[in-house]
Amino acid sequence: MKFKSAKINEFRTWGLLLTLAGMLVMVLGTAGVLLWGDTGKVLMFFCMFIGSLLLMGSMGVYFWAGMMSTSAFMLECPECGKQTKMLGKTDRCMFCHTILTMDEKYAENSKPQDLS
């Protein structure tokens, strides 16, 4: 099942996952010194390098999400009434995950139906 959330929140989730992965790789590399002594120092060097790259990647993702967030269109969600940000032609509310759009061709109920 695909998770349903706003685009900005998806970018922030990927940034968090990269941060946690980088820290985990660094901790595992440090544990290599305790387990294997001098041989573990080489493993620690590589793990610290890869972990640092992952942390820099997460910094880039967070920066990118922040820049997109400053230029995002602010609107009030019709379902929950809270202010939310929208990227692109369609997005989801950050709070209640309602599908939002400003383009009528993407709207499901854009034209009222005649019931008579």
UniProtKB/TrEMBL annotation:
InterPro entries: UPF0295 (IPR020912). The keyword Cell membrane applies. The chain crosses the membrane at residues 12-36, 42-65. Pfam families: DUF2614. This is DUF2614 family zinc ribbon-containing protein. Keywords: Cell membrane, Membrane, Transmembrane, Transmembrane helix. It comes from Marinicrinis lubricantis.
